[in-house]
């Protein structure tokens, strides 16, 4: 695993929020990397900087200091348009509250992301159907999100994240709104697909049960990495 | 149309209906007011325009046909007949007045634009007699068919004013000024009925020329030769008559049209804006997923445009169907729906939709995709 080029690399990254005279250091000199087929769990208490780390890794925010490389591309000083392009092609997000578009069916939620990636309508449709079938949602393709269970919603969200075939998957508390059984199923699915499709995965959570699915656990506290430990799955 | 735009738009059917309804009402209001204006404009000028005269002769200061504050000596007609460029000269006695049905309450009156003409020449007489006798004999009148419909004036009825009366002997077309209609009698009947003193006085003369193309130059020459008398082309006199009647209405109409546009814009703008605000989080998700701002702008513009187009179609259909129907119920409601006006309203609706999308689009630009990670 160490021989493969890193899909995500954070090098001495700090993020400082300024409000008038006040400064808050959300991340402080954080360095770590994620390789293909690897799941890294970022854990820590509330306010430790987990979400900031995730948004910087996902090319949503630029670091105040340090360099961020996504799939070998330095995104540290990119324009908004270029960052959007990186997110469109390289990064898939899985959210705590699923964040499906309410007016679109499960299939359409996946299709539009695939189309935005550049797939034509037919290819996007086929790819979305394949993904939903893969996640056991073949019979729920035309259901609106409000008709889906939370577990189904999260599976649609994972299918959507994979629709653009990203090399990096970033999951923010993916099990927080699921019961333990559904949470386990979702994490198992995520781990399995990451391995199969050779994706780099970062899971941000304060749920200790995530540890068992991670190759490594990164502990974040007050914006700093405190420890680095590895679990074998 | 983009999938997100279409789905978001049609997912909220009540909001869509309100939005379309607001724009449709605005379009309908604009359409019906314009059609009403066109209808009136066509109707009030048509009699003067349709009289096959090259020149109208009036005393100096006369502005139009309906005010008719023109008094000319009858001898002027004889003088004009001697002008070689003039082919036919016909006198007219025109007087707006109120009349009533014989036997009815004398206060139950209606307006008649009384026109005395020379039946031997015919110029200035009824444009088209649709029923009854023509020309009228002594003590007889041919009324416009709109007067017949509106005030139940029928052939055989006697119309009175003071101690004098006229018998209705026919209906004519093309003499409706909306607020009044023409009634044609012979010159002799007019002199007697109005008790003109001297009886030779006339209101207008209408003339045809040997060469109608020279009417402007002939008019200028005659104005120099006969001081105190105006020679006006048929088109100019029709335009003056229109201006006299509609010139007062036009500024009010413009204000109402602007108000209708603002109402449509406000309804469209508010619904599109609230829809955008409610979907802020979803737009944030799309931003996080790498959708560009221009894609999101397109979503809002398409929603606004489709709402505008649907509102326009409903409003235009209402204008086309409701206007003529209303005309059958209310005779004064004279509408003329022009496709050019409908096209103009379509343009105004598109403008409405564009402006309505502007503020939501600005709002979209400020949505932070990071916000979707909160809760």
Q: Can you give a write-up of this model?
A:
The complex is a heterodimer of chains A (about 230) and B (about 375). Chain A has helices at about 50-55, 80-90, 105-115, 120-135, 150-165, 180-195; strands spanning about 5-20, 20-35, 40-45, 65-70, 75, 90-95, 170, 200-205, 215-220, 225-230. Chain A has about 230 residues and is α/β, with parallel strands linked by helices. Chain A has a single domain, classed as 3-Layer(aba) Sandwich (Rossmann fold), CATH 3.40.50. In chain A, the strands form 2 sheets. In chain A, strands 6-7-8-3-9-10 form a 6-stranded mixed β-sheet, with helices on both faces. Chain B has helices at about 5-10, 15-50, 75-80, 145-150, 185-195, 215-225, 235-245, 250-280, 280-290, 295-330, 340-365, and strands at about 55-60, 85-100, 110-115, 130, 140-145, 160, 165-175, 180-185, 205-210, 230-235. In chain B, helix 1 crosses helix 10 (about 295-330). Helices cover about 50% and strands about 20% of the residues of chain B. The model of chain B has no long low-confidence stretch (mean pLDDT about 90). Chain B has 2 domains: about 5-45 and about 250-375, no CATH class; about 60-225, no CATH class. In chain B, strand 2 (about 85-100) and strand 3 (about 110-115) form a beta hairpin. With about 375 residues, chain B is α+β, with helices and mostly antiparallel strands.
Main traits of this protein?
heterodimer; A: 233 residues; Rossmann fold; 6-stranded mixed beta sheet; disordered C terminus; B: 375 residues; 11 helices; 52% helix
């Amino acid at each position: 695993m160490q021989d493969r080029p890193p899909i995500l690399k954070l090098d001495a990254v700090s993020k400082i929020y300024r409000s008038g005279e006040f400064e808050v250091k959300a991340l402080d000199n954080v360095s770590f990397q994620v390789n293909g087929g690897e799941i890294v769990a970022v854990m820590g208490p509330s306010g430790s900087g987990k979400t900031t780390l995730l948004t910087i890794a996902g090319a949503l925010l630029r670091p105040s200091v340090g360099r961020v490389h996504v799939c070998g591309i330095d995104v540290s000083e990119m324009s908004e348009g270029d960052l959007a392009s990186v997110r469109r092609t390289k990064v898939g997000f899985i959210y705590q509250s699923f964040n499906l578009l309410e007016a679109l069916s499960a299939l359409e939620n996946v299709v539009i992301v695939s189309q935005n990636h550049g797939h034509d309508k037919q290819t996007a449709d086929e790819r979305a159907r394949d993904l939903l079938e893969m996640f056991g949602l073949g019979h729920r393709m035309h259901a609106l999100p409000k008709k889906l269970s939370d577990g189904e919603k999260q599976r649609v969200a994972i299918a959507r994240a994979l629709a653009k075939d990203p090399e990096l998957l970033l999951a923010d508390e993916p099990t927080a709104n699921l019961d333990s059984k559904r949470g386990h199923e979702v994490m198992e699915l995520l781990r399995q697909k990451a391995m199969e499709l050779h994706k780099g995965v970062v899971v941000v959570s304060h749920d200790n049960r995530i540890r068992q699915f991670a190759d490594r656990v990164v502990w974040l506290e007050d914006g700093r990495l405190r420890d680095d430990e590895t679990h074998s799955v | 149309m983009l999938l997100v735009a279409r789905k978001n738009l049609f997912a909220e059917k009540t909001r869509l209906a309100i939005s379309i309804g607001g724009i449709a009402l605005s379009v309908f209001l604009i359409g019906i007011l314009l059609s009403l204006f066109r209808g009136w404009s066509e109707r009030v000028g048509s009699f003067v325009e349709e009289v096959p005269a090259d020149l109208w002769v009036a005393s100096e200061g006369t502005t139009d046909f309906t005010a008719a504050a023109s008094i000319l000596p009858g001898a002027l007609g004889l003088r004009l007949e001697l002008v070689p460029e003039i082919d036919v000269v016909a006198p007219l006695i025109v007087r707006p007045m109120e009349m009533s049905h014989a036997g009815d309450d004398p206060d139950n009156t209606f307006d008649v634009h009384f026109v005395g003409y020379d039946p031997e020449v015919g110029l200035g007489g009824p444009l088209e007699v649709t029923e009854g006798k023509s020309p009228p004999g002594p003590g007889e009148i041919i009324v416009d068919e709109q007067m017949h419909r509106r005030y139940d004036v029928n052939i055989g009825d006697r119309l009175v004013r003071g101690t004098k009366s006229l018998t209705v002997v026919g209906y004519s077309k093309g003499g409706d000024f909306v607020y009044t209609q023409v009634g044609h009698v012979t010159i002799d009947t007019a002199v007697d009925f109005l008790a003109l003193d001297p009886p030779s006085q006339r209101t207008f003369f209408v003339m045809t020329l040997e060469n109608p193309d020279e009417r402007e130059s002939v008019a200028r020459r005659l104005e120099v030769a006969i001081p105190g008398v105006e020679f006006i082309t048929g088109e100019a006199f029709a335009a003056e008559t229109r201006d006299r009647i509609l010139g007062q209405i036009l500024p009010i109409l413009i204000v109402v049209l602007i108000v209708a546009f603002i109402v449509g814009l406000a309804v469209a703008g508010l619904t599109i804006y609230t829809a955008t605000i409610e979907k802020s989080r979803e737009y944030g998700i799309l931003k996080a997923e790498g959708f560009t701002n221009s894609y999101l702008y397109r979503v809002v513009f398409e929603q606004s445009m489709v709402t505008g187009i649907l509102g326009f179609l409903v409003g235009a259909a209402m204008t086309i169907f409701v206007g003529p129907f209303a005309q059958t119920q209310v005779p004064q409601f004279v509408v003329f729906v022009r496709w050019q006006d409908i096209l103009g309203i379509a343009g105004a609706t598109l403008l409405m939709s564009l402006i309505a999308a502007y503020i939501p689009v600005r709002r979209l630009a400020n949505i932070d995709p990071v916000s979707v990670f909160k809760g």
